[in-house]
Each structure stands twice: as structure tokens, then as C-alpha cells.
Here is the input.
Amino acid sequence: MNDSPSRVYGYVGPPELRSTVRPDSEGRIIRSAADLDAWLSGRGPAETSEPFTFVVALDGLLRLAPRRSEHVACAGGADVTAAGEMGFARAAGRWAVHEVTNHSTGYCPDLDSWQAVGRAVDRAGVEHPGRFTHEVVFRRCEECGERSIVREADFVCVFCGGELPVEWNAGP
Here is the structure.
């Protein structure tokens, strides 16, 4: 995997959500497959059957939180190199990443954030699919300023009908 620094994503979601982040709200750090096993083993089948909220912090480590957690809380309010949702399944007696997406409207990470995800999961020694299993394309409309999800390669703002740029611009 490429060791070059990843793009840093600042929080772009609602300010009122960031203001609720507590110092102890940061997601569970996953440094190893044993960390992942310990964290997932403490959760019931209903919870482990759906994806979890994740971020990759600036230290390159994966952090996980329950699915309905806000990404900014999982990150402890900090900038990240990746964010999205990650699902796990047991394979050969170990947990493996089964599905992973960059779907985070709080950080709006671009598809190149996969590099940070791949490095973090590799570092933890956890099997993964080698790419996002569902890719979300975020863009900020230069006409009205709203952030949108591009669907079916239709680069049109759903809020004002303006044309969305082809290059990522969803940051602060």
C-alpha cells in the first residue's frame, strides 16, 4: 500500500453536532485483529449484522463506533483521513471487513480516502475487500454552496439544479 500522506478531511457537517462531541466520545481504536475481536464480541448479533461508523484518524488508526453514532463524535471532533461505514463478517474464525463505504455526510470524503482505510485495516491485520464496496461521490455546489451526493454520474445539484464540479470540492 502507498505510504504517502492521505488527504485530510475537516468536519463539514452541522455545527450543532460538533458542539455535542465530548472528549470521551472518540470511537474505539482498532490496532489489531484482537482489538477488533474483543470489541465486536461485546456486541449482539443484531448490532454486528449491520455496518458500524468508522473514521481513520490522523494517526492512521481505525476507530469504530456504533452505526448510529456521528462520525465527528467517533473522531473526537478532529480531522480525519477517511470516514464512512464498515460491516464485518466472520471468516475462517476471524472477523473480516465484509463491506465498506465512504458514506459520511459529516466529512464528505472522496474516493481516494480508500488509501487511508486500506492502510489502517492492513495495519490492524484484518482482511478486507481491497476497495470501497459502495462508493459515494460528494460535491459542493459552487452556485448555492450545498453539499450533494452525486448519483448515477449526474453532476447536478439537487438543491438548485446547478452543475457540480467533476473534481472533489466538498471540504470546508
Observations:
- The chain has a mean pLDDT of 94.
- The longest helix spans residues 114-124.
